[in-house]
Amino acid sequence: MSATGIVFDIQRASLHDGPGIRTTVFLKGCPLRCAWCHNPESQRFRPEKGISGKTYGVRMSVESVMDQVLADKDYYDLSNGGMTLSGGEPTAQFAFCKELLAAAKAEGIHTCLDTCGHLQTEKLAELLPLVDLFHYDFKASDSNTHKRFTGVDNELILNNLAFLRSSGVRIILRCPQIHEVNQTAAYQTCLAEFRADDSIEAVETLPYHATGLSKYGDLGRVAPAFAAWKEVAAMPR
Amino acid sequence: MAGTVLDYATLSCGLPGMRTRIEKRHSECVSESQKEFYTGCLLALDVLKNSMQILAENAENPDLKSDLLHLQKNPPATFAQAIQLFWLYAIHSGTWNYGRLDCALGPFLLEDLRSGIITESTALDYICDLWKLMHDYTNQYNNRVIIGGIGRSNVEAADVFALLAIKATRRLRLNQPQLSLRVYPELNQTLWNEAIEAIAEGCTFPILYNDMVNLPAVARAYGIPETEAAQYTPYGCGEYVLGHLSQGTPNGVINLLKALEVALHEGKDVSANRMLLELPAISDLTTFEKLWESYSKVVDYYVSALAEQEALCYKVTDAECPLLFISMLTNDCLEKGMGAFGGGSRYLGGTIETYGNTNTADALYAINELVFVRQTCTLDSLVKALDANFDGEHKTLRNELLLLPKYGNDHHGADEMASRVHNHVCLLAKSKAAHVGLSSYLVVVINNWANTLLGRYTLASADGRMAGEPMANGNNPSPGADRSGVTAFLNSLAKLDPSIHAGAVQNMKFSREWFGKDRPKFEALLKTYFLRGGAQAMITVVSRADLESALLEPAKWAHLLVRVGGFSIRFIDLPEDAQREVLARTLN
């Protein structure tokens, strides 16, 4: 019997989640609580109903997700695209995540995994043969800062990154640029080192945006007190 | 005459060549009516010759003067003279769709470039001047120029013209001519690149047609061999005519959503307070198929009437007006000695414009789902809600209706209903041709802005559309109803069978994001859509912010072109409800 999981969105023809034309499947639930999270509706591991009546998250089978993914296979083929699993943290629903990746691989679909890297290294190892490209987050170089703004320290995450780098898989490092969190000399030095290293294909810096702020209200939650919100709110549009 | 595209291959024999051909027929023919026809044609040529004389006498430009004098007695010898003769034929015949100008003018252009008579830059100036003439001959729903495609005899020369044609369109950024490119796998790569550049810049041109789908589709729809189908020529808002082989104008118009409304009101047009035909009461519509039957009756009644009207219109046209220029430049007319509408044209077909297709399909899907499958409301209460325009207590029902699956999301059930509505009206119209004695009578799913106009007179509908609101455009989803990504949208479009109609327009609005570093993705998207059976693409590239700014400060946005349906226009020239409809469409 195949796994089921909570999906909070499926975006077809997504342009920003890897090479080519892709379908991005967003799995709900995350072990981190990044202060700047722009998808707060993705954090909890169960479907939620917003104050507006909008439902966030629905339980789906691997087959029903794959029905939608397969509907655009010819677009992937011609554009060198594929399926991206994102979240939340997709590996947090491990069995579901692994089966989705395996199902895509079985159909000859390129796979990309957007991950924060916070999972047991043994589990990450299980996914290696099923993932063509890792989008790996690098949020803060200093462990205390990492813990303060995401809820977990970065030891496991950095260890997993080292493991991936030694495994010879394709890695693109995704680095949100947030003044209060990581605009430090130490972080920039790390980025420079990663850029210079062959084991990492590219280092992408992501401009920070505050789309998450408005969603907390509908979820009946209070956005974390976080200076960057204000920075963004003050930015010219 | 919109639905007529002349045989401009005859440009090469010039006025004297045409005269010789007609004189020969005239001297050989036996029947009185043929003699009359040829005499008329010769008189028409005299008129053309006189026009040249008058224009030459009044011409300030000495080159123009000498070209006109030359053309009175000789075939065109240069690109400039060929353009001149083409344009004189066009305005004398009263036609404003020009067909494959790359075939007609390309050989003259290439010859002049090779012999050094003109440079590429002068040639581009000439084409720009021609485009301005077309623009001044103002008819935004027509003025079509076709380039590219299968079935061109001198591809090299045609491509030279086609490339400059796109460059002219990019330089001028006008809403006319409606430059249309027929795409096929061997299409010149430079031409393709230039086309994508033009689209990326927001020209809304060229409109793209996919020959791999359209050739077999046209052959099947018209019941003709593919060699003839290769001359399919989009004109006007997107109807096809078989270039210089057929006639097809003017169109009948039917609002399918109104037909459903009438079926839900026992045969009455409520807004006009008029009984149209006798239909079962709501209480008797106990199954979906019974409702479908009532709807079909309304559609059948009007499609039959419109087919008869079309045939009658042709008969009167022939009797009252032999249209000699059109006839002498349409295949077979000279051979037969008959006018284009009196048996001369090889094919005399007609088309009927259908509107509200998508809303009708989404409404029928919703009715079936809520009334007959889930049985959460009765047909009677639903119709009451529609009549009340979802006011007061009916608001919740509208929300329920809006949440149901809609065409445009690659959703099996919703798209299947769209196909059913599409197949039904297309096959019905097709079947009427034989009854009324036309070679073909086919649906076209195009749009001037009748979706907005007819929407004003249509009650609220079960897809959640409010009374008076615009209906969806052409084959497109209702504005904003396609929420599953552009691939899902394109997949839905490609499901509607193109081989049973004579043209459908598929509008799509893209953000500029697709045309920077992601341009290869855009090209892959378009190519995949074409491989999946997509017949056509009209692409507006625009940002939401631009459209909103243009609504507020029109004076600053005179350059902003949008594709509305079967025509492009400066956004600021649209009436406000049409502007809002364009704005509401999904931006991919």
Walk me through the structure:
The complex is a heterodimer of chains A (237) and B (588). Chain A has 237 residues and is of the alpha/beta class. Chain A has ten helices and ten strands. In chain A, the strands form two sheets. Chain A has an eight-stranded mixed sheet. Chain A is globular, with a radius of gyration of 18 Å. Chain A starts with a strand and ends with a helix. The relative contact order of chain A is 0.15. With 588 residues, chain B is of the alpha/beta class. Helices cover 52% and strands 12% of the residues of chain B. In chain B, the strands form five sheets. Chain B has a six-stranded mixed sheet. In chain B, α1 runs antiparallel to α2 and α5 packs across α7. Chains A and B meet through β1 and α2 of A and α21 and α22 of B.
Q: Please tell me what the overall shape of chain B is.
A: globular
- Note the main sheet of chain B: 6 strands, mixed
Spatial ordering of strands, largest sheet of chain A = 5-1-2-6-7-8-9-10
Helix coverage percent of chain B: 40-55%
Major beta sheet summary of chain A: 8 strands, mixed
